[in-house]
Structures are given as structure tokens and as C-alpha cells.
Amino acid sequence: MCSPLEKITELVQTSQWDQAWELCQASLKTSSQNPELWVMQGYLSLEKRDPQTALQSFLEALEQLLTAQDLKATENLLAQVQPLFPNLPVLSQVKARLLLKQKQWQAAHQTFCSLSKLPQGALPFEELDLSPTPLSVYPFEVQHQQTQLSHLLSAQALSSEYRQLQSHWQNLANTLQTHPPFQACDISSPGSRWLKQAFYAPSLPEFESVINPALDTASIENRFLESGWCTLDELLIPEALASLQRYALQATIWHKAYANGYLGASWLEGYHPQLLFQLAAELPERLPQIFKGLTLKNMWAIICDQRSQGTGVHGDEATLNLNLWLTPTSANQDLHSGGLIIYDQPAPAAWSFVEYNQADKMPEIYAYLKATGAKAQRVAYRQNRAVLFRSDFFHESDHLNFKAGFENQRITSIQLFGEKRTPS
Question: Which Gene3D superfamilies does this one have (predicted)?
């Protein structure tokens, strides 16, 4: 007796497209984790002149193959699909993730650089279109961008012509002073488009190694394997830490604003300094009992307004989280806080990503933590301290009390490793 896939193939070979489509749909209802069926649906969708469904089908197949670590099949399918959808960023992102799993981190880094279209250095001022652009922004977001621009001008990273943009943004910030800082508002003012587009990124040096050679790796592995979390103090060598902090302060990549008062940037939006890809490559070598078989899955950073209380309670969809703090410890006015709260209770296996990651689900999460008697572990803030923990452990920012000033904003670099943990 032939399998559904074989039967669909027979129908395709005899041009019985409608019957092939119906059987493929029925088969996916009972075998949704079969990437070959998704590939078949992709090609059948192209035959039906439905490229959107075709693309989504191919992406589902690629995601399943990547998750299953079937790298050769992923590479082969990607080679078939990319010519069908040329220059599509989402396929380039899949390519970058494949390169990471193939341990080609330099090539992956270059792919993300191409995706974000981040400038090398500063865009020439004459290339900036300063005509008013309608946008929805938060006042705290405008204040951050205006202050960052002033920081770049003071550091002489930009030409004096950029003072014209600074003047426009200062006027905008002044008009929003009476508006609640964490409430979005619609604007259209000169130079507003550059509140959401990158115009500068610093060049960083390369390093032979970025991890502190004095790191007590045996202690780290023992502590993590015992509890599912641990701290890594002084993780980066000083030169790498300084470079990463400079990148976070100077790269104009902070374009995703959140209502609870922080800005974010992912590796798709420009947060992709090479040294972080190098860090991800070095960690399995230094901590093999923890990182063996795991590759970088995602990466982003957040920068918190001093009036913000950071991220709410949530879990992440990976195996491991590595949260690294970049702001000087002296900026934190409460040395017992300012860091992270980790709950020793994973998200229930039956919960979806939306159920354990979205802000509107926090009441249900707190109720679950209370019902299960979860214990909260408080990790105090320290510069160059990384917190390594199971991604399915619920976690949230601890109380924040940082000094005023652009360079004193709490910056967290976040990397996810591996796929979602399989329940034991």
C-alpha cells in the first residue's frame, strides 16, 4: 500500500491537480510534522498560482528540517526555493540560520549584515530625505533618538551637517514633553523617517577570542547542570565589552518601541556585531557540557528608559538564554536589584508560545507560578555579568533604578541557543 505522499506524486504525474491538492490537504491534517508534505503543498500552490501559500508551505518545511537538524535537506530545499522567490529577506534569514548550524558564523554574520542594510559608518548627510513622514512613535522613543544623535555629534562620529537633523528632533521632543512618555502618538515632522531608519553604525575591531580566559568553566557547568541557571561574571574580555557597549550606544538601530518603556533591536534590524557571533561559536568550546549540539537561534538587545521597569514575566522559545548586561555597574543605584528574576518553574508543555510569551498573558503566568509553588531567584545587576538559564524558565526584569543620562540606560544583550526544549 502506497503512502499518501506517493499517491499525491502519482496524481501529480498524471496531472490530476485537484485530487492531488485535496489529498495533500487531508494528509497535512493528520501529518502536519511531515516536511515533505509541506513541500508538496508548496509546489501544488504554485500550480494553482497561489505564491503566498506556496511560500508559507516552503517556509514551514524549512523550519521543520532546521529544527530536526537535517541540514543537508534544508540546504537542498533552500537551493530549490530561493530561485522561485529571489531576493526575499525571509529566505536569507533561513540561510543565515543554516550557516550557523553548519558552524559558518562569519558567513552567517555577513548574511545578517546584508539583511539589515546597516551603513558602514555614517550615511552622507546629503542622502537623508528630511521631508515629513507620518509615523506612530512614543515620546520616550523620540527622546532616546534625539539624545543618541547628540551623543554621536559630541563623539564626532557624524558631520556637523547632522545638527540640522538634531534641531528638527529637538523641536519634536519639545512638542511631546506634555504627552505621556509611554503612550504612542502620531507625528509628521521634518526628519521623522530617520527615527525609524539607521544612518550610522560604528566599525568594531576583531578579536582572536572574546571570552575571558580566566572564566571558571568547571564551576559554571556544575552550577548550571544542578539548577538550570547560573551567572557568568566578567564573561567578555574588557576590549570586547567596550566594543559591544559602544555599538549599543552608537548604532542607530533602536526602532522597535514597547509601551512599557524600552527599545529593542534584533539581528534582522542591525543588532549583529561580529563579536557576538564569535561569542556564540566560542561558548560550546568553553562550556561543552552545556552548549554541546546547540547553535545560535536568535539575538537581540533592549535598552531601557530610566522610567521603565523592563520586561514582564515570560518564557522564550529555545533551549538556552544568555542575557548579558552592558551598562556600567555604577549606573545602577540599587546594587541588590536592577537585574533579573528567574522562576524555577518551566512553562507547561501544553502552552503555546503566545501563552507563555505575550504581555497580556502575565496574569495567567503569575497564577500558574503561585499554584506550582515556584521559587524566585533574584540576580543582581552587574556590568559584564551574563545570566545563563533554561529558556522555558519564566523570567522578568527586577526593579530598575538607574541614574539619569544617556549612557546610564540599562542595556541587555540577549542570545537564544537551540530549539524549544522537548518535555521529558
Answer: Tetratricopeptide repeat domain
